[in-house]
Write a structure and sequence with these properties.
alpha/beta; Aspartate Aminotransferase, domain 1; homotetramer
Chain lengths: 333, 333, 333, 333
């Protein structure tokens, strides 16, 4: 059984069905009836008017959001292990025409107001240094930790004080919401977030994320930038339909609950081995090479994380029965 | 019946089935078994080793190809009504970091060696003017004309003499191949083409084009650029599966033949009204506002093309029986 | 005697003296006492508070001004023979990260409101086409014609109606002011101009132009962009001192008057040969190859302008006595 | 007496004289007789054919060199306190269209092969991470340390093994050469350097650095990039004349010797207070706030370096007699 990545996981059957059901002649790009429903559906979810653009990947969603926030000579405060720094091939620099990521430390890839303030204070306020114009956090983080709405609000307040924009990379936003138990509104705009990369692909989608703006001028820019970057699908209805299916009947929450529960079960089995508390759908645990080999021999696949640890990622289709054998195998090590 | 755009058309059922069949857990990005088959399948088609990257849109395919050919201070010779100039939101400028399109006239959006030579000769060879580093042609053109392999070869020879790269925007490559009756190899690399944006979305695909390189260093660059631009789907197997389905049993040719035949039927009915010979799947015809209204009242939709003309685009699912009523209505005007 | 270009001309002795006089230890970059005086001096000249950045070249001044006005997916309306299009190596595209020049025709490289309106109206208002966000005019134009303050105001009103920014390339602003006989304020901000590239190098300076902003947010952006582009001299006092010397005692007007007068004299001699009226310091005249050879044999150098014409450019150091022999030689042809 | 920065220092009288002597009508841009002599003069200095472009600032020299080495999706290994990272406003990101600086630690801002190898090894070799394509070192470093030719050669060999380009920021190259006692050739191309930002402004120049290429294709690119970035002065002779004056009679070495000697004298006086050995023209020393105040009261100005230290920079015009009072004051603390 594979626990490599939620990227590799299955597309949910309801999403598959929605894609199939969208195969009608309709207007091109985002002029179709599916795309046109998006803003209403997401506005309902977020309890206010929002702007919503479908977009194929989280990397594009992040980079387009950030390009609406900073100029080429400005910078984006983010964690030193943030996905935008580590795994997006320099996309923010490309999309912004040269802006810099201003790396900030923090346990479990989580930023605190103190750490962000420290990073901001380290910048001389002259034209020779790159001035911060945005803050980007990932929720859930790269290590599966979850910011509460209050923690987000504290960062949002700091961003406002410094007059910088606030972006949330929500590749695993669903897992974070399930874990935090708060509303999407509290987790985002009520806490000062201007733009959210709302991930669906890791959570049962195929190739559509939602880029949500709580800020109209940014959304206007992003609409052009999406097209200029070649991200405006000509048959956008197949993207919109995925998002609608995910929101329908709260499938996104249902799926995230399953993945989180599976991770929690593994986390309990891992006990003292855990490198981080298990708050979403990722488990980082200490594992010797021999132990890793034992698990692999038993049919479980996952990433090594350095020499003495491993990363296990659960997905919406890993139900508790599925992961129990892995949990037992870990407990038995 | 709608003849707006082949962008708006249906996805072919075999492509739909292939997408559904790809819903297995597999490696992420382009590490899956579908993606890994692509280069072999396209190499067979092109009768030589090629490099192939799936990519969501023609705009992205074009821009990424061009960004592997030119530097920010260089230029791309193209037709003044080329899609990259008129309808891609400045994507080539964005992807190249500032390179300029060097616009060149030509009837029916078709370039001749003389026109290209004239454009090149108009550039002073100093650092103050933007020097050409690439030539881009569209086959079939924006007006539905088709370059023969010989015509492409004449442009390719010119490009080689001037030491510039050669890109073909093949959003309707299938229609061009069917019309020209030559091999994909003769139409491209044997005629000097370095990179081809091989379109499938207008021809029955959903959201996957193929970016084909006959040049390894360019392909290496494009692979990174695709990721940096956020175009590397995390579940790439659903893109690759579309391309494999389109090539399987020559579905791409089958579909293009249907669209071309439908356009030909309309073209015959249009007779003297035609603005351009009908060589692919587009018909441009003179039509007064009253005549256009008549056709629309009869249930046919299409784009106005300026004040006194219209554009009718046929798709793979317009079989000859489908379009006969439109042909008759035009003939009856 | 050389009439190639005012670029090649001498630096005025007063500018030379000011440079020598600035050789004192002082603060680096633009923190020195010369740089600090600039905004006051230019604010006096323009009869309102302005922002002023010294910058080495007209190309940089233009590109930095434009980069504060447009996003990568937007466009700049300019004449199809504007310097930014023809002779700046694609600088606007590079500085803006991909924005496009929207070329517009007009006799003598001059834009009319009708021509600009026509160009704007040709753009479909969707995300697929590059939307205009700025208008750039050159005064005096590339053919030595001068916009009156009223003509500028008509363009400025049009720009405001379309909510686009307005830039003036004033590489020969001094010659335009002398010719138009209006105030710098009337020629610029009172007519809707947001930013002016105020040229001094062609008019007796060495390597300092003034980039003037009548718009604070743009000036703020430009200050960072100048540094990021490597244009913030570490010993900026030598740039500022040039500008101060040029403004002192209206040297800039004195020099432009001399150049304009010299051109006028040649223009009178050229009579029927003139391609354009002589309004600033450039003379374009019909000249056969044989006639050009005759003039060159007599010791006069200038650029051929195509096959049957020539461009003669006068400079501040061409006083009337200097150019009389050329005028006579032309009259004698 | 001011010891803030060699940026703020005087222009050497011989450079001033050379500028004055260049005030003749000549060809524009770099077509004049001074610019045309540069490559010969620098080729003599470097004992091989080199390419040389004058350029106004070190920031521009560095950024243009790097833009000829990397693509937007690639990275540049440099020290985490390198000038290109700390004080150039993100210029490398802007010029390269998004490339990233890959920060590497090292005492005294000096890189070792082991540290560079460690940074390179930390990068996964896939398209998701930014791959290194260049290495940039600063000699003398930001803390006034000097790489020997052997140390450079070890880094050059490493760069070659990894197939990455090698850039040297030589803002204080003269001070490094004087300190290391080796030839410019040994310090650069014989040790694998592809491009050198050869600084003159800090060493008695006004506004001209030399960008030296030991690699023709890079130089070809840089020539266009310099123009596109607006760095091609229209009266380039005044830049070229500065460089010729600095090389004439080895003025550059003479000046650097004076600055280094002045720093050495202060360094000896500082003794145990030194944070780094004094190898060039910078002295970093521990200094309490009270001690700093004492020195300032005595008429000496310098930068605080954090809370408990100071940076003193000597210039070509600080001869030993000039700095003796400062040395005595430090010794007396």
């Amino acid at each position: 059984m594979r626990f490599f990545s939620d990227n590799a996981a299955l597309v949910h059957p309801k999403v598959m069905a929605a894609i199939a059901a969208a195969n009608h002649v309709d207007n091109a790009y985002d002029g179709d009836r599916w795309s046109k429903r998006l803003e209403q559906v997401f506005s309902d979810l977020f309890e206010r008017q929002v702007r919503c653009l479908w977009i194929a990947t989280g990397t594009a969603a992040n980079a387009i959001a950030l390009s609406a926030m900073v100029r080429p000579y400005q910078g984006i405060v983010c964690h030193e292990e943030a996905h935008i720094e580590m795994d997006e091939a320099g996309a923010p620099g490309f999309y912004t025409g040269g802006a810099k990521l201003l790396l900030t430390p923090g346990a479990g890839a989580k930023l605190t107001p103190a750490a962000v303030q420290g990073r901001l204070s380290s910048i001389r306020g002259d034209v020779h240094q790159v001035q911060a114009a945005a803050l980007s956090v990932t929720n859930a983080t790269e290590y599966g930790l979850v910011y509460s709405a209050d923690e987000v609000a504290a960062l949002g307040a700091l961003a406002r004080r410094h007059n910088i924009s606030f972006h949330m990379d929500g590749a695993r936003f669903a897992n974070a919401i399930v874990s935090a138990g708060c509303s999407p509104a509290d987790m985002t705009w009520r806490s000062g977030v201007d733009a959210l990369s709302f991930g669906f692909v890791k959570n049962g989608g195929m190739n559509a994320e939602a880029l949500i703006f709580f800020n109209d001028p940014m959304a206007d820019m992003a609409q052009y930038q999406r097209k200029q970057a070649g991200h405006l699908f000509s048959k956008g209805r197949f993207a919109a339909a995925q998002l609608l299916a995910m929101l329908d009947g709260d499938l996104w929450l249902h799926n995230a609950r399953a993945a989180n529960a599976a991770a929690a079960l593994i986390g309990e089995a891992a006990g003292e081995r855990l490198l981080y508390p298990v708050e979403a759908n990722e488990v980082f645990l200490r594992l010797t090479a021999a132990e890793a080999a034992t698990l692999r021999t038993a049919g479980f696949d996952f990433y090594d994380w350095g020499d003495e640890a491993a990363r296990i990622v659960t997905s919406w289709h890993h139900d508790v029965d599925d992961v129990r054998p892995l949990a037992s195998a870990i407990a038995a090590l």
